[in-house]
């Protein structure tokens, strides 16, 4: 490690550092702000007391077992639409099968109905959605195939004006005609989008997996009572398993000879069951990581990811499950895909340009971007791996004044100073890596700037991301070299511990970021800072087309369409018969497609997109 880097050992030294910052001018109860920065890089030394291996929950753990009968809903979750007035409810019915000669369930055989209302005693509104199944097929001798239970997604939209902001709704999902319905759950909608209203706490986690350490991350997270959860990719780590259920901490080390990188898809069901108590109440927004690729027959990828979660893709005018956007109060989130085309000529980039051009910072002052592989990472693991994505997209994000970027992928914690193109810049974003959710792979501990740890540039690209863009630096303190010889100046704080973060946006200019380590008491902070926006100093590109996806003016089309699904049962049936209504047609379309989808639920479902939302 270089002589200039500040190396601290243990928590007491961190407290000393925080004290120093207060002297430098912090005025927020001892918590530093980004205005006090850029900060000298801090590395918190690894605490060897916490180096126990992360071990997956076995399939015998009660928390991952199926505890419903017949076609009763399980793995229930809530996720947001693009605006507060609508949410998605998702669940699974029926049993998955794994083995030889599996016979996929018929998604049409179980209806997708949510009854909901503002009172637990009067679930007077009704919404109907669609259902699908997906398969994970391995046409190789000795490997087992998987077919999912029936996955249901229902979008709740109110009559005319939509769901009310900041309001608790009770719901029950399932198929009342079987009957097979859930008990009653509740969720709270996001506040209205404006300068003055924000969800109180947004939890941010990455690279979760399903180990005993994951369970401690999630219980700490729950104790912080988040209003929303962001999962920045790498969800279940089902791809650390063979199809016969044998797992490993390192797939390629343990199973070097397999004909294809196998997965054990039941781990997804285990994960859905483990998470249900949390995500049936608190909305979760997920973006894909490399562990979701899950290559299978016919080069199909991301089948579980794209099928199991609901994404506000159509609502945010994306045609893909891999990138989308949404508002949560006065924050606009863009969720980006690192493992699909991100180049300037591609669909994602064009969508991002349109999406950013439509953000009205007078309504959503905060702009937060999220994707899986980090651009600013000083650990040896995945060092400069996503450099081509950075080259393609950084200028665009900067020109629109993205305030904060959340990433995962590196199994540790790191927070940057404000930075743009490797140069400290008061108008650059703060990059935060929280790939420290607790999965069973190795924790990232070594740093690229330590002697002998700088990777050879040719080894840095990820096979799945294509391209090579990580050349030696041409300016700055590391000019002419591939790595720094001390903790880079862009890296403000790094520490190898498991944990999660909480973002509390207070107003138009101040957001409090707190990183919680699993080994600490619940209310302790490992790292804490006010991220402060300076809109006068850092003006952003003016909006172009007006607020297409903003909350304040819901599109009338939505209200009309919602009617048929929201009224009482008879009317829905009537409307279904005259096929007057897009929502119901969409539900039918989706179900009619199922026969063609048997080989690949995810892709067929994507092709359905785009019919509904174009005005
Ligand atoms: C992971 O959990 C185990 C107990 O299951 C614990 O001993 C270990 O310290 C944890 N690891 C970290 C990095 O927190
Ligand atoms: C799995 O599905 C593939 C593709 O349909 C098929 O070729 C293979 O025989 C199946 N394997 C088993 C074990 O059923
Ligand atoms: C799964 O397959 C691997 C590799 O062939 C083998 O070593 C292991 O014993 C098998 N496990 C089970 C539970 O059959
Ligand atoms: C799958 O991808 C490989 C490698 O890119 C290619 O050779 C093969 O033809 C593809 N197979 C199908 C069915 O598309
Ligand atoms: C980033 O910096 C590099 C090296 O200094 C330069 O070649 C490149 O043009 C810069 N990119 C942007 C978008 O400014
Ligand atoms: C994106 O651009 C990089 C660098 O120009 C290139 O190497 C890569 O192949 C491109 N990726 C795709 C998916 O087009
Ligand atoms: C890039 O930097 C590395 C050291 O980090 C050095 O070994 C290598 O020669 C440099 N390559 C070029 C092309 O300058
Ligand atoms: C924004 O919130 C911060 C932190 O709570 C506070 O110090 C500041 O005065 C607030 N600014 C405005 C304009 O309300
Ligand atoms: Fe990853």
TrEMBL record:
Q: What is this protein called?
A: Purple acid phosphatase
Residue stretches spanning the membrane = none
Query: What positions does the domain Purple acid phosphatase C-terminal occupy?
Result: 481-520
Q: Give the record's keywords alphabetically.
A: Glycoprotein, Hydrolase, Iron, Metal-binding, Secreted, Signal, Zinc
Q: Which GO terms describe its molecular function?
A: acid phosphatase activity; metal ion binding
Compositionally biased intervals (Acidic residues): 578-601
Among PANTHER family, the record links this protein to: ACID PHOSPHATASE RELATED (PTHR22953), PURPLE ACID PHOSPHATASE 13 (PTHR22953:SF15)
Instruction: Kindly give the SUPFAM superfamilies that the UniProt entry links to this protein.
Output: Metallo-dependent phosphatases, Purple acid phosphatase, N-terminal domain
Q: Where is the composition biased (Basic and acidic residues)?
A: 565-577
Q: Where is it located?
A: Secreted
Q: What is its EC number?
A: 3.1.3.2
Question: Which residues are the signal sequence here?
Answer: 1-29
Q: Which organism is it from?
A: Escallonia rubra
Q: How does it assemble?
A: Homodimer.
Coiled-coil segments on the chain, per record: none
Main localization category: secreted
Cofactor annotation: Zn(2+); Fe cation
Q: Where is the Calcineurin-like phosphoesterase domain?
A: 201-413
């Amino acid at each position: 490690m270089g002589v200039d880097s500040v190396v601290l050992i243990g928590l007491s030294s961190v407290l000393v550092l925080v004290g120093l910052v207060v002297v430098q001018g912090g005025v927020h109860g001892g918590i530093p702000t980004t205005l006090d920065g850029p900060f000298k890089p801090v590395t918190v030394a690894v605490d060897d007391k916490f180096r126990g291996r992360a071990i997956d929950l076995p399939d015998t753990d009660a928390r991952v077992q199926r505890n419903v009968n017949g076609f009763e809903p399980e793995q229930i979750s809530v996720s947001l639409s693009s605006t507060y007035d609508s949410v998605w409810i998702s669940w699974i019915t029926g049993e998955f099968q794994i083995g030889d000669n599996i016979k996929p369930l018929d998604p049409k055989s179980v209806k997708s109905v949510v009854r909901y209302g503002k009172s637990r005693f009067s679930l007077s509104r009704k919404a109907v959605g669609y259902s699908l199944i997906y398969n994970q097929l391995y046409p190789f001798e000795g490997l087992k195939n998987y077919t999912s239970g029936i996955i249901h997604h229902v979008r709740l939209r109110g009559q005319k004006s939509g769901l009310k902001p900041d309001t608790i709704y009770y719901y029950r999902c399932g198929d009342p005609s079987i009957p097979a319905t859930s008990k009653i759950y509740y969720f709270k909608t996001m506040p209205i989008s404006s300068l003055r209203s924000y969800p109180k706490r947004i939890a941010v986690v990455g690279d979760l997996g399903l180990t005993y350490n994951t369970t401690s991350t999630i219980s700490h997270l729950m104790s912080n009572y988040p209003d929303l959860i962001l999962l920045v990719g790498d969800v279940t780590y089902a791809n650390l398993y063979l199809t016969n259920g044998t797992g490993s901490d390192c797939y390629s080390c343990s199973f070097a000879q397999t004909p294809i990188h196998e997965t054990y898809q039941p781990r997804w069901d285990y994960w859905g069951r483990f998470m249900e108590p949390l995500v049936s109440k608190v909305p979760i927004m997920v973006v894909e990581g490399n562990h979701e690729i899950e290559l299978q027959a016919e080069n199909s990828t991301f089948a579980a990811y794209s099928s199991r979660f609901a994404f506000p893709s159509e609502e945010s005018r994306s045609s893909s499950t891999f990138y989308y956007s949404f508002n949560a109060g006065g924050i606009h989130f863009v969720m980006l895909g690192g493992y699909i085309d991100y180049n300037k000529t591609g669909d994602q980039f064009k969508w991002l340009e349109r999406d950013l051009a439509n953000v009205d910072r007078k309504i959503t002052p905060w702009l937060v971007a999220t994707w899986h592989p980090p651009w600013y990472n000083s650990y040896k693991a995945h060092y400069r791996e996503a450099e081509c994505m950075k080259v393609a997209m950084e200028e665009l994000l900067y020109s629109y004044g993205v305030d904060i970027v959340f990433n995962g992928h590196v199994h540790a914690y790191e927070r940057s100073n404000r930075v743009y193109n490797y140069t400290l810049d008061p108008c650059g974003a703060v990059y935060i890596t929280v790939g420290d959710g607790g999965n069973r792979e190795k924790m990232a501990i070594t740093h690229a700037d330590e002697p002998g740890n700088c990777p050879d540039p040719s080894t840095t690209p990820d096979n799945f991301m294509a391209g090579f863009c990580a050349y030696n630096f041409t300016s700055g303190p590391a000019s002419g070299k591939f790595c720094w010889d001390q903790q880079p100046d862009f890296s403000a704080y790094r520490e190898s511990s498991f944990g999660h973060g909480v973002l509390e946006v207070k107003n138009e200019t101040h957001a409090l970021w707190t990183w919680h380590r699993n080994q600490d008491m619940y209310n302790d902070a490992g790292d804490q800072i006010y991220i402060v926006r300076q809109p006068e100093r850092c003006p952003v590109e003016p909006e172009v087309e007006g607020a297409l996806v903003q909350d304040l003016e819901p599109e009338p089309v939505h209200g009309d369409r919602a009617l048929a699904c929201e009224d009482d049962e008879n009317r829905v049936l009537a409307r279904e018969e005259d096929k007057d209504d897009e929502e119901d047609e969409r539900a039918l379309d989706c179900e009619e497609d199922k026969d063609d989808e048997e080989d690949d639920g995810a892709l067929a479902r994507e092709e359905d997109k785009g019919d509904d939302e174009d005005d």
